[in-house]
């Protein structure tokens, strides 16, 4: 019977949840009923209230008992995953140590594997387990103790695909565990790279100020503007060592995680001490975007280049909202562009150039030479209200950058969708990342 919980409020909802939890305890006949009751209550509280009206008490009891079955016995650090076919859905249950970007990664994997889901439930719980790994206490997340994430996805997954999906989730969660475990080590490696470059700057001098800007940019990355996913050290002879995160040796065979095809050769010819590029792969953790790759030169004690510190990850969301005019390296580029365009400081054109510069994507500003950025800004600056459409395309090492520019009066959500649809047809299913700037 559907209980119509959309109309339940306050005490009625509380009574309903207690009733479901009590039924789950009565059905299970467990030795520690208080543990199951606590788990059931926290599990039900994690459901969106509006969605509870979809289920009968019996259906919710079945879900609680399955969640308890998955989490009842778990060794330290173990990733538990199981599935069951219920009410026409394939339910996937996961119990894992709580960790950063866990849910984001799982949702990303569902999208990557084309697994449609109608609902996810994600209670974070405080647990206590005995030496066998059995649950002896469950409490809300704000209480002291070990934290676990209990996650349920209600999917419309074809049963024939279930095992493959579970295997992929398990693989990615193992990678994610190593990424989180290596995070501090990767930050330490970046600190070493900063010190290395700063030493080189003091040793060789820096008349143009470019090394100082590069060091400042790396400090900016270090200051919570970069999500580290992987790192390793590349010797000039091609040898690799110190793989961390997604770059650990045991993850090299994981499909679509990362690759360095072509990167070694390009770095062998790179005259600069810092290189930013986009990875070929879409990140499999955190959020859906092409990997950001940083390469920083390392030097011997006499200042001779000997290898590269490589970092794979994504710009933090906060970094993408910062104004480029204040970001190291980019602020130096902007000053050179302003000088080249000969705009008067404080003038209307000066403010327009800075505004347009700040609107451009961070990754494109880092990759593009100043001449390309200046050409783009100049074209937009002098378009005025002309009834024209300008298309700029730049073929990069790992991707094609395409920018469509037209007056604001022409814009509509429908037009944006039509442009994206047309591009998807042209690239035949290849990954497209689009951004709108008004």
From TrEMBL:
GO terms for molecular function: glutamate dehydrogenase (NAD+) activity; L-aspartate:2-oxoglutarate aminotransferase activity. One of its GO terms (biological process) is L-glutamate catabolic process. Pfam families: GDH_ACT1, GDH_HM1. It comes from the Bacteria. Residues 41-157 form the NAD-glutamate dehydrogenase N-terminal ACT1 domain. InterPro entries: NAD_Glu_DH_bac, NAD_Glu_DH_HM1, NAD_Glu_DH_N_ACT1. This is NAD-glutamate dehydrogenase N-terminal ACT1 domain-containing protein. The lineage of its organism: Bacteria, Pseudomonadati, Thermosulfidibacterota, Thermosulfidibacteria, Thermosulfidibacterales.
């Amino acid at each position: 019977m559907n209980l119509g919980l959309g109309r339940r409020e306050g005490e009625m909802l509380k009574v309903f949840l207690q009733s479901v939890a009590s039924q789950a305890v009565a059905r299970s006949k467990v030795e520690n009923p208080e543990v199951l009751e606590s788990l059931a209550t926290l599990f039900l509280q994690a459901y969106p209230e509006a969605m509870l009206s979809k289920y009968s008490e019996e259906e919710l009891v079945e879900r609680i008992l399955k969640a308890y079955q998955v989490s009842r016995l778990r060794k330290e650090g173990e990733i538990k995953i199981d599935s069951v076919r219920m009410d026409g859905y394939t339910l996937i249950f996961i119990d894992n140590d709580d960790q950063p970007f866990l849910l984001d990664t799982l949702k990303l994997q569902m999208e990557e594997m084309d697994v449609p889901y109608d609902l996810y439930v994600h209670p974070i719980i405080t647990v206590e387990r005995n030496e066998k790994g059995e649950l002896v206490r469950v409490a809300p997340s704000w209480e002291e103790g070990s934290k676990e994430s209990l996650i349920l996805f209600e999917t419309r997954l074809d049963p024939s695909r279930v095992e493959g999906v579970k295997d992929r989730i398990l693989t990615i969660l193992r990678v994610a565990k190593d990424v989180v475990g290596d995070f501090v080590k990767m930050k330490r490696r970046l600190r070493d790279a900063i010190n290395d470059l700063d030493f080189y700057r003091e040793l060789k001098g820096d008349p143009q100020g470019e090394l100082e800007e590069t060091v400042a940019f790396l400090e900016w990355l270090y200051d919570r503007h970069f999500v580290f996913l992987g790192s390793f050290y590349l010797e000039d002879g091609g040898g690799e060592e110190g793989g961390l995160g997604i770059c650990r040796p045991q993850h090299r065979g994981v499909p679509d995680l990362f690759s360095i095809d072509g990167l070694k050769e390009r770095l062998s010819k790179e005259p600069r001490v810092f290189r930013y590029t986009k990875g070929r792969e879409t990140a499999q953790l955190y959020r859906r975007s092409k990997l950001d790759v940083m390469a920083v030169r390392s030097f011997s004690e006499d200042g001779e280049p000997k290898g590269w510190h490589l970092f794979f990850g994504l710009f933090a969301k906060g970094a993408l909202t910062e104004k480029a005019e204040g970001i190291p390296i980019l602020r130096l580029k902007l000053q050179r562009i302003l000088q080249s365009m000969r705009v008067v400081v404080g003038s209307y054109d000066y403010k327009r150039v800075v505004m347009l510069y700040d609107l451009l994507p961070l990754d494109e500003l880092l990759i593009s030479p100043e001449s390309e950025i200046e050409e783009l800004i100049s074209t937009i600056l002098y378009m005025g209200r002309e009834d024209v459409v300008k298309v700029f395309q730049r073929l990069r090492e790992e991707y094609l950058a395409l920018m469509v520019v037209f007056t604001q009066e022409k814009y509509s959500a429908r037009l944006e969708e039509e442009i994206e649809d047309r591009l998807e047809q042209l690239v035949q299913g290849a990954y497209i990342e689009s951004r709108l700037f008004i």
